Please model this.
Amino acid sequence: MPDPRVSKLAQVLVQYSLNLQPGEQFILRTSPLAEELSLEVYKEAIIAGANVNLQISLPGASEIFFKYANDAQLEYISPLRRIIVEEFDASLYIEAEHNTRELSGTDPAKQAQFSKAGAEISKIFMERAARKELKWSLTVYPTHAMAQEADMSLSEYQDFVYEAGMLHLDDPVAFWKNEGKRQRELIAWLAGRDQVALKGSNVDLSFSIKERTFEPADGKYNFPDGEIFTAPVEPSANGWIRFSYPAIYGGQEIEDIELWFENGKVIKEKASKGQELLTALLNTDEGARYLGEWGIGTNYGIQRFTKNMLFDEKIGGTIHLAVGAGYPETGSKNESGIHWDMLCDMAESEIRVDGDLFYKDGKFAV
Model:
């Protein structure tokens, strides 16, 4: 028998997050390490009447690809990938890492080249999602490697993952619906505003959100969830920010990232570890040096950093910025082959919007 929390997670994902309907084309992207959750999701999707397609990745395959792929292979777009992005109705990715540092020995330039080649497919995915033509969600299945990354035992990490999703509650869906209501109250306050100023020990940055839309995050796209997010106006960011938490990309850790912005563009970058990868990713394409997202974590139930952005960007008391592609539903016009989130602690900081205090020392002030 599976862990009852796993069964409940599968039900929430299929019935609430994705709301699968009879006849819909559904792709389940997963790993052998997530067999328990994958089978439960598969069962629930079949019961819902969806047409389920499985895409199973093999542990170690990504490392082989980035070590040995030539230019043509790095830039190849599979017709199967295109069909899924252009025609399918729903997609779920279950992250289940066997080695969180799998790509540490691979060439950062190859990762950037691969991401650049996939920019068109990523754009189609985002545009269909914004039009509500493609439902998608991302979740985690706890593994030993992910627990070690978070400095936890496996059982402790399992409790962390399932409690972050409120799966210990009798009705987790009711919780996430209420969370969405709370987020929409914050979004209503922000509606129609323009100038944002972030100031604190790690940030002195301003940008515009004029005519941009904030989106709630209440368990539909990510599970667990907990943030509100939008896209800064592309040429508007000016100033400096230090990301006090390590940033992870392709299993590689980059520490103490500092970015300097001028008229929206990153004009200087610095890191105490991983400088080469940081610069390579920012040079992926023109859009990679502009902001595609600004998010504010609203999940104060997540109390610790785990080196997994699915959880970390939701931490109450933090903000995150993503360089690269923005979500069209927020009004973003930025296009790129990457979308890379970086996390900043706001414990000693404030956010003012059109001069009005919105957020102070990690808490909402409205």
